[in-house]
Design brief:
The protein is an alpha/beta fold and 289 residues long. It has one domain: Zn-dependent exopeptidases (Aminopeptidase), CATH 3.40.630.40. The protein is 28% helix and 17% strand. The strands form four sheets. Strands 1-3-2-8-11-9-10 form a seven-stranded mixed β-sheet, sandwiched between helices. Strands 4-7 form a two-stranded parallel ribbon. The protein has a two-stranded antiparallel sheet with strand order 5-6. The longest helix has 30 residues. It is globular, with a radius of gyration of 19 Å. The relative contact order is 0.17.
């Protein structure tokens, strides 16, 4: 955030009593745009929001009441992308940044400090200094990931495992329409093709959505990025799964507003969250032994 801004770049909601190893996170739903950032942008207020996972944090709000913590970014993705490595700096945007070899995200303008929003639209004209980029990372990226790491550590200490559910939204057109045999997925689960979570965890998450009549696919076209890479270590009892939800299920993408079906979908999501939370419930946490 801005150097003189003491607000946290995230909202952490803790349950009255932690009863599950599951942790929910929303790194892209932030909408607290710094004034200085908006003044430098060449985009209007609506366009600059096009990269948000709008309302995902609200759909996750029931989690603490179900016994699971919720970490939701307040800093917007257009300002700093919390699902990128701190080293993914874009030389086309940041003066003095070293090229990152073989990184299509950075080349396309979607590094840790994004150059573009959805549709490849440039956020600002000209470059920023390396010091400005590092200040954003220090003020927003590092505190968010420190909080997430602490939640994972606490979960392992108390339950012997941690199950991170990293939740995002996807444009309706992000996944091509299928046939009657393979309809368009409404939910895409990512575990980096089995690298970041045990198979049974992914199966139970898929079932949690499927019983609600939603079409679920795995890893294509979204397998997960930095958050899963950094926190998913199944062999150490640290599991991480990314969930992408079709925005058309609950919002008007053009207006960035909930549509008439939002209330019903929010109730559906509460049922899904309850099923996912149950995966991490144990009769006696290790800390109590």
């Amino acid at each position: 955030m801005d150097p003189d801004d003491d607000r946290l770049p995230y909202r952490l909601m803790l349950p009255a009593r932690r009863t599950t190893s599951v942790i929910f996170a929303s790194p892209h739903s932030g909408r607290d745009y710094p004034d200085a950032f908006l003044r430098r942008s060449v985009l209007d207020a609506q366009t600059i929001r096009s990269s948000e996972d709008a309302f995902i944090d609200r759909l996750l709000d029931p989690a603490p009441g179900l016994g699971a913590p919720l970490l939701a970014a307040t800093v917007p993705r257009a300002y700093v992308d919390l699902n990128r490595a701190a080293e993914e700096l874009d030389p086309a945007l940041i003066e003095g940044a070293r090229p990152v070899p073989h990184n299509p995200r950075v080349v396309s303008g979607l590094g840790v400090i994004p150059r573009v929003v959805a549709g490849g639209r440039a956020i600002r004209s000209g470059k920023m200094t390396l010091a400005e980029a590092e200040a954003r990372i220090a003020g927003a990226w590092r505190p968010y990931h420190a909080a997430l790491s602490a939640l994972m550590d606490e979960s392992v200490a108390s339950f012997g495992e941690a199950i991170l559910i990293d939740v995002h939204s996807m444009p309706h057109e992000a996944v091509e329409g299928g046939s009657s045999r393979a309809p368009r997925p409404q939910i895409v689960l990512g575990d980096r093709f089995g690298a970041t979570a045990a198979p049974d965890i992914l199966e139970r998450i898929e079932e949690a959505f499927a019983v609600e009549g939603l079409t679920v696919s795995r890893n294509v076209p979204f397998a997960g990025a930095y958050v899963l890479q950094a926190h998913g270590r199944p062999s150490r009892g640290r599991h991480a799964v990314q969930i992408e939800i079709d925005r058309a299920l609950y919002m008007d993408e053009a207006l960035i507003l909930p549509h008439a079906g939002y209330g019903a979908f929010a109730l559906l999501m509460r049922r899904v969250l309850s099923r996912i939370v149950a995966m991490g419930v144990q009769e006696m946490p290790l800390a109590a032994e």
